[in-house]
Amino acid sequence: MNTEACDPAELAALREIFASRPDAAPPAGWEAVRAFEAEHGVELPEPYRTFVAEVCDGLPEGPPYYGLLPLAETPSDWGAGRPERLLAEPFPLTAAWLWEEDEEADEDEAAFEARTAPVFDHGSLLLGTDGCGMYWHLIVTGPQRGHVWQIAGEGAMPFGPESPDALMPGTPGFAGWAAHWAQGRDWFPDA
């Protein structure tokens, strides 16, 4: 997965997936992408960066279930009172973290929220929601840059890790995530 240069084959696959959708929003354009990056102190990973600038900036119906969000938006159910999103701060995880399996999960609510807040708010761009508090994030800073993660009330897990025991197997990255959706495949095949 190359997050620095846009692979023409990945971009062509993304164009094919989204160009056929009559409800796809027009691209944001390079000026809007660069303004967003300057405002947040990040450079978006490829191929998402070129996709938003040249192909599509949102899709009302999938992926995810409630649509692909435009670049600068958050889902309507994101909630008031959440901390400011800090995209330039590194995303803190490199492996799945299921809160229920955490030995410190019995700590008081404030301490737990302080430990989990960076997972929700640092180093990631919200792609959309499947509802019920399940959010898809594109990681924009940190070791997982370019990967897509699902972060929900139960925990955080990457889409497409290249291991046989992965909870959500597939091709990592935005292009792999979008292709997985377009093919109608289950996110959790063994669930």
From TrEMBL:
SUPFAM superfamilies: SMI1/KNR4-like (SSF160631). Residues 31-151 form the Knr4/Smi1-like domain. InterPro entries: Knr4/Smi1-like_dom (IPR018958), Knr4/Smi1-like_sf (IPR037883). This is Knr4/Smi1-like domain-containing protein.
